Input
Amino acid sequence: MKRFQQMGRAGAVAALTLTLAACGTLNNPSRSADTDWRDDAIYFALTDRFANGNPANDNGANRNAGDRADRTNPLAWHGGDFAGLKAKIEEGYFKRMGFTAIWISPVVLQVPAIETGSGPHQGRPFAGYHGYWAEDFFRVDPHFGTLDEYKDLIRTAHRNDIKIIQDVVVNHAGYGAKLVTEKPGWFRTGEQCGKDDVTQCLAGLPDFRQEVPEVTKYLNDFVSYWQRETGIDGLRIDTMKHVPDDYWRQFFAAGGAGDPRKLWSVGEVFDPSPARLAHFMNDLGAPSVFDFPLYFAIKDQLSTPNGDLGRVADVFAQDGAYRDPTRLTTFVDNHDVRRFVSEVQAKGGSAPQAAERLDLALSLIYTSRGTPSVYQGTEIAQPGLGDPYDHPAGQGNREDMNFAALTGSTLDERLGALAAARQKYPALTRGAQQELWRPNGGAPVLAYRRVLSGERPVVAVLNNGDTPLDLATLPGGGIPLLGTFGGGALTEITGRASDLRVEGGRLVGTVPARAALAVSGTAGSAGTVNARLPEVSGVTARAGDGAAELRWTAPADPAVTGYRVYARTGSGAERLLNFAPLPREQTTYLVRGLANDEQTTFRVVTVDAQGAESRGVTVAATPSANNTVRVTFTVDARSQGNGPIELRRFDTGQQVEYPMTQVSRGVWKTDIELPLFREVKFKFGSDHPRAKNSGYEGPDQPDRSYVVGTAGNSYSGTYDFITRPVPDAVIEGRVTGEGQALEGALVEATSADPKVNYALTFPDGSYTLFVPAGAQTLKATAEGLAEATRQATAPATGVDFALVPAGAQGPQVGKYRIDGDLSDWSAPKISVQSPGEGVFGADNNWLTLRADSDAQYLYLAYTYRVSGNSAILYLDYKSGGAAQADRFEAWRQAATFSGGMGGVDAFIARYGNEAAEVRRVESDTATPEVAASGYTIGTSGTLPAQTVELAIPWTSLGLSGPPAAGVNVVGGIFGGEGYGAGDIIPDAGSTPPGANTIGSDAEQRRATFTAPVTVR
Output
């Protein structure tokens, strides 16, 4: 579940990215009571966005305009229904990919649509197409069909051996639901909403008071009604952690509405901590929960060749937190998060690489413990940047399923092969999972085995790198199999070509780039006892929070090659923690995923070269959340000037903020009492009003991570540099405005990465900027003053800026003073007025454009309003040029150039009020940036109002002088990458007018430029 801040309804709707989605199954008289869901593979269909089988119900009850289907609006109904799902079942769509269960989004009647309060769809209807805004919990929403059609869908699924999992919400009702008016005492609303997980009102939605007995009964009756009336096989339970524990205890109790003996369910506990998830399964009785810890590891590590597969292994290493980790439900992405394909592309991967990495991630969840769940569109490698509320049409994570795209995808066949392997090899669904190899700073490979008594074992090997990996090049000459296989050849269980084989007890062969291979063979033997092996000595155990650190002294006998550790909690069965022996030289081991307040007995055994074990030495410890230590956190935040710094912690289920104290110039510290051996996830934050990235450090980087007590009870870092190395140079200087020191002025290295290579000034105007060594272009800005740029070679000191008021003392370049003040533009050769609003609204509107030229310079000046979008001016001044901007390596937009605009030879682009970029267009893709020293620019204005003024030498455009035919100029306010424009200039309403056009929302507002203005 995503974190939400408390907010009013308008703000809540704006922030809506509800992780409202889930999957579960309940048994009915026609289904086997002993169904083992580990044997299943689940397909998640967002009903409204999957398939339209009956256009007659597209407008539902047609209560208002928001009820009517509008496929150009990502927040409206689109027409998908029960009939569409039924048709796809009968077609064999799901069975072909091996899916045995379909999780469908909530089916209940939704509240009427509301108005979108902000973002790219501001003012348009926002409907409950997703199903999480219930109006009536006991009625089917007519957009999906009728109750009889729903029953028919379920009967059809059962005839085809497919289970149906119904998504349910017991945390909240929809905005303005009649039930809230009828039963006000049942809900928390407005000021009654709290800030903790349970009492907060997610996105301003009315929050059920489950502690009221009538509410408990109502919600139980709601779930029981759908089970009894329709014969669904299971439940996906939305927003599970936002409902009180006591509700779940009675829900899952014997005879309860969610009694696991009659109804399987899987809960959404949006949390990265295995211990937190285990609480719902071990203590509250949930049959399954979604494996969010594994999701986060997949998202962060498998999406890039720089990812660490050891972090994936760390998740599996905490499986001891669960009584039975095979009951988890695993997934790669869903409708509440950025899709995996877009995670890869955001980190520089190409579309083909993203599809291969998606295959790799799917291979992981199909060959590891748990039940795999796959979101619709995965079979076509569908991208999606996030909640459609925040993204233009075509860019969100809830796009309509595009069945036509199957012709260009092989992932559907891959899903079928993976599912078939799970059915053929019981070790994949029922077996123990044991690690064989992890990177440990070396090659990006992870290997584990799945073993089940009496069945053929399976070994899965993942290569996260961008080049093929010869396993024989690993230390030791391959992956030690430790007796996994006997003699004979190995079979790749999904049908992939493979040369993996056993040589000298090790797995060798080549694993392709961004790929996984899974092989099986005759079972070998392992785990014998060597009574002559010497034991370790001096074994101790230090208990922490859900963890314990073991230490011992190694025996001197060279026959000992490593160690294994076993654990037994209370009187339970002993379990092996590490099948792959620890190295002989390692004499400490941190065991995580332990139950708190229960004694765990550990047995440390020595292992010989053949994998045989000693009898072992035991030691006991009792983990507890009360086992804490004081940890000192230090951050070098000199880049943040005098902005107050705090630590923002994320591993508790909600953000916890800790103030820090400045101990020296820009260096901040805090001491925090924390649970011993707990992995703390956090970022440092800046509360300066001009802080970038909303005051959070490390944009596009993961949270920081620290395991308490493993590094001398201290942690230190440099602000903004989490996974990126700290630059090896600094530039220092001072910024003044009208002779006065400027506190909070922003200095950016535009030649590096302004997202992290920037600094805010201290009260005396001084700044410290972390940058790579070498030549850098810097820009300084401050409110109400004209920006200034200068060159410096890092490291450097004394790089000072003296800013002047906007429009006051900018440099005189040729005919104009370039300062963001256009009062001296009295008679330009070109002047266009365009006050009319575009489709993005008044705050994304191009207003004026002026252009002039002389023998040395092209002069451009323009005004516009912009909020969350970009202003781009395109230039055409020679034959040829790019006919589209769709493939540009930078500033890729949905824009076409033809007619009088023969192509694009250069453009000026600026997002918000950030630094502008001048780029030449050398091909359909290549758009190298012109160095900032190659032109003069002046800007002014406070967002959203902006003014830009440039003087560009002809030589910077690759010309020796003004072109004979002049320069054709067009511009627009553009949305995100790959999207079109909301307003353009010139257009039909400008003075003078132009024939340029903007396409429909379905066409992603493609801008088509055919009629430029020309300056000669």
